[in-house]
Amino acid sequence: MQACFRLVALPIILHPLLTFLVPQGAEHRAICQGLKHLKNPPQVIPIPIGVEPVTQFLRNWQRSQSFDAALQSGVLVMGLCGSLTVQLGIGDRVLYQSCQDASGTVWDCDPTLTAQIQQSLQATNSLVRAFTSDRILSSAHEKQQLGQVHQADVVDMEGSAILTILAEAGVPVAMLRVVSDDTDHDLPDLSAAISPEGRIRSLPLAIGMIRQPIAALRLIRGSLTGLRTLEAIAARLG
C-alpha cells in the first residue's frame, strides 16, 4: 500500500526548528521558493546526490553547530523519487516508512515525526517502502524488477545513507518525496552526469539528453511536475 495523498487547504504545522535536507539544485530551489513566505523559515540544507557523497557530507555536518537543531527537533528529507510500482505515478506524493540499501539492510523512519506529517497531510493509506540505489536507474524493466525483488515502492539515491548516519546519531528523520518518473518508460542514460562529489555535470547531462530526446522530454516533464508539487507542499509548511 502507498501513502499517496492530495493537498488540502489547511497549513502543515511542524516544529519551527525542524531541519530540511533537500538534494541540491532544482529540488532545493523549489523547496526554498515554497518556504519564502515564512518570516522565520526553517533551515534548508542542500545535500549532494548519491550514497557516498551524502554520507561524507553528513559526517562533516555532524561536527557543525547547525547539527544541534536537527538533533533536537528532527530532519525532514524532501525531494524527488522514482516509482517502482504501477500504483504510483508522476506527481504522487509519498511518505516513507522505511528505506533499504543495496545490502538488504532496512532502516525505519522516525514513526512519531512521520505520523505527524501523515496526519497533517491527511494521508489515509499506509507508508511506502523505498530502495536507495547507488546509480540512476534508466531502464523501466530494471525498475520493475528492482521493485519486485526488494518489495519496494519507490527509489532514490540518498535515503538509506541519511538514515544510516542520522538514525545512529539519534536524530528523528521523516522522508517526504514526490514521484517524477514512472515504471512504464525508460529514462535517458545519465550515469555520467553525476560527479563523484554528487554534483550534476552539465555537459554529460546535455549529451545524455540529446542522445535520447524522447526519453529526455519525458524526464523533463516529469521533473517539472514533481518540482511544482514539491514547491506547493513547501508553501503550506509553517
UniProtKB/TrEMBL annotation:
UniProt xrefs under InterPro entries: Nucleoside_phosphorylase_d, Nucleoside_phosphorylase_sf
Domain Nucleoside phosphorylase intervals: 75-186
Molecular function as annotated in GO: catalytic activity
Domain of life, per lineage: Bacteria
Gene3D superfamilies found in the cross-reference section: Nucleoside phosphorylase domain
Gene Ontology biological process terms in this record: nucleoside metabolic process
SUPFAM superfamilies documented for this protein: Purine and uridine phosphorylases
Protein name (Swiss-Prot/TrEMBL): Phosphorylase
Organism name: Phormidesmis priestleyi ULC007
Top-level taxonomy: Bacteria, Bacillati, Cyanobacteriota, Cyanophyceae, Leptolyngbyales
